[in-house]
Amino acid sequence: MTDSSQKPSVLIFGGLNTYSRALAAYLVPLEGDPLVSHVRMVDKYQVAPATTYIGAEFPKILEKEEVDYQQANLTVPSNIPPLFDPPEGQPPYDYVFDLTGEVRQDRTDMIQISTTCNVARILGEEAAKRKVKAYCPWDEKQNPKPSGTVGTWWHETLRILANMEDLNLVILRAALGYGPYTDYGTMASFITVAAVYGYMNKPMKSLWSPGKHPSHTVHVEDIAGGLWACAQWMAPLASSRMSLEAPAPDKKVTAPLFNLADDSQMTLAETGQLCTSFFGTTFDFFNFFENTIFKLKDDIVEEINELHVGHWTEMILKSNPPIPNTPLSAYMDKYYLEKTVVGFSNSKIKTVTGYQLSKPRFNHDTIKDMIDKWKAEGSWPIL
């Protein structure tokens, strides 16, 4: 499709602090033809000036004529319908990407209900009314079995959406995301802390010996590409749902779901070794005695983080040129220090949608690309 009027139009809700910037860059690249005729992005953040980290390249994406950014409070139902109205003279939106939802592990049930379940319900209702061709939410629940506040309410959110009539729903569940200008998530934190141990010339240690459990990863370009592939796959299909209310707890509801991970299929130990070796150090595990003591101490998280944050601050202060501000932190909250199993097969999305990974391997080259771009924008210390 070369005629822009024949290309689909897209709505992206939320995710400015996670993956919507990567999705926008995929749909409307700085170089090359856009995949869409128009994309409207909506989030609570301001972008000029930015009230959250948006990276060095995203402001250039916002300058594209195909891109419209609007700031809005998505928890207010009356704000939603006008956002679905296309610009004058343009057809209704074809695809809706829902990247909303609270990702912080320390948020209460009430906050999760308000900002995750309720927002998705309102957006899903409006998308169903507008008969959009594809409604594609990103699933933060990286464990197939819901656990904790985030896992529980993201899972319930998907059940609510899957129960909606006339909503062409397709769900993408991504592994541990990483990539340029992505300061969110386990991998950004892990890489930053690995750099700290490289700076200290000490091994980085984990509590979870022997580290053979999976820690699968996926590049943000592939999260964007996977979302697009899901929407294009769903658009020609028909879908029938039953109501706009939360289904009964014992009721089974279904919706198409694709897992997305790269081909690295690495374990925790392999991921740790890869990251630390990039910074000239090693990855190891505490011995049984140390493990037993650490797991019994409630304040172990703060003790570990005092070491991380102190040396990261030292690195920032020593940087030449100076770094006035960085979105990156060496602080690892309790969730990041817990044993987290992320093991997804990508065979279904490849087979069913035909999607091909643009970054099939997490390796030193992909880490270098991240670090180089952070250095260039002044977010990573140059020592």
Automatic annotation (TrEMBL):
InterPro entries: Lipid_A_modif_metabolic_enz, NAD(P)-bd_dom_sf
Top-level taxonomic group: Eukaryota
Annotated protein name in UniProt: NAD-dependent epimerase/dehydratase domain-containing protein
